[in-house]
Amino acid sequence: MSSLVSDKPKAEPARTYDGPPDYRVVGQHGMYPHLSHDEISRFNFLAHMNRHLSTQIMPGVKEAFDARVEPKFAAANGRGFKDRHEVRKALLKDSLFQWWSALRRATMETRQQAGRWVTLRQADQLNAKAKALTEHDQRLKLNPDLPLPRYVEAIDHHCMPGSYHTELTDGDVTGPCNYDIGIFATTGGMLGRYNDGGGQAIAAWVKETLPDLKPKRILDIGAGLGHNVLPIAQAFPDAEVVAIDVGAPMLRYGLARAKTMGVDNISFVQGDVSDLSDLADESFDMIHSCMFLHETSYASMPKIFAETHRLLKPGGIVFHVEQPQYTPEMPLFEQAMRDWDAFYNNEPFWTKMHEVDLDSWMVSAGFARDKLMHSGVAAVVDPDVFPQAAKDTKQEDYGRKAAWHVVGAVK
Amino acid sequence: MSKIDPLALAGAKSKGKRPYFLETDVERLTNIVLVLAQELAVVRERTDTLERLLEQSGVLTRQEIETFTPTKQQADERGAWTQEYLARVFRVLQQEREALHTQEASSEEVADELAKV
Ligand SMILES: C[S@@+](CC[C@H](N)C(=O)[O-])C[C@H]1O[C@@H](n2cnc3c(N)ncnc32)[C@H](O)[C@@H]1O
Known about the structure:
Chain A is of the alpha/beta class.
């Protein structure tokens, strides 16, 4: 034996591991694509990359801000920052912010490529599977003539090529499938096995806040592929749930996915939620959106709020789950960091939506001010497998943190 | 054959003008390096799987890997591989150095010269 090699007993690990779990804990529902060993390793790497960026590099951005960005601005202007845009523009000149941003953007693009490779190489099988599961199923209601809102068409949200609506071929579901399988990488596993930590938190919040609510009909607006509506449908198994989205591939994949997970009380309906005239007045007991409003527009928001008011039964509840609004109490640095996704991850309306007074918008739509409600929810995930979002103090990923605000009203 | 070509489409651009934070070429290179780092992690994880499976099936132990000492012959072979590898990676610098000592015409100049009658 070489003298370099020690025969000491095996060393204790140098540190206790605290990081994302292996990708294989992600829940394999029936629409899950096949992932090879290397494809899984790519997602593992990307989850770590995102966590590294948020826990190791991003804190440096705050340090650089305090140490040089803010003092430099004050020296040059003889005053502090007026608003978050000034902060962001000053940060853009700082090399640590530049490097963090360049790597964050690169990681997002790399994640898209990694996921698209997986789904596109087996597109025919995935599309055939979705077809077999959804064909002739009355719960999938598509409307190929529905015009796409400008805010969906203008830019591919979160750098997801083709966004929520593009179909590469008839019956395509590769877009939503890519979205689904890569969330683990973007969030470092913070949203749980089925990426439904948000929906689970919402379901628990509703039960706690309104223990007597027995909704017969539930409407999810901008439901996407249904990640977060599934736990709600499961929490209210006797309710009829309607999940609406503009993107046909999302809905097709959503129904197929839900069926393979044994959730059967959701219809997936293609529609623009700023005009739901097909649905009767006062026909829902509960209407909600999850991470949806920030991908709309000022022109459509009042229409959306008005529709929720019209569709809600008296005594029913409406609520929207979003990242917190930019209030005067929120430091400008935090606001600027939260704006990152708006400007650099193709979420343009994020910055605009987060500055409005949602309460007034709700009141203008007809809800009584004294019936408004505000709360907060944090992702519920299996603590044996996933680092628990609410307790993970190390990860301040600003707009991507797995904790949200709820603003709602009882009619 | 599927109509969808994953090689062409996986890396498609998302709609919306791309921001750059660094000098564009530096940022392009950063993107390339990130993917190489990813692929290195992929290979590393695969090797790790291999080692663990081999250990599980009793073919070898990871202790044997850790304590492996190449013979002189094996070490020479590995050293040679590393030298070739580095020579490939740093070709551009080698050529830069060679160019220091030469005065050469460009292809364009040679072409002009060859076109003279
Ligand atoms: C960020 S996703 C949120 C998805 C889902 N609620 C969740 O929790 O994961 C936003 C979704 O809203 C949809 N959307 C945007 N504008 C819409 C509109 N006017 N009507 C219906 N859906 C819309 C998009 O197609 C997209 O699927």
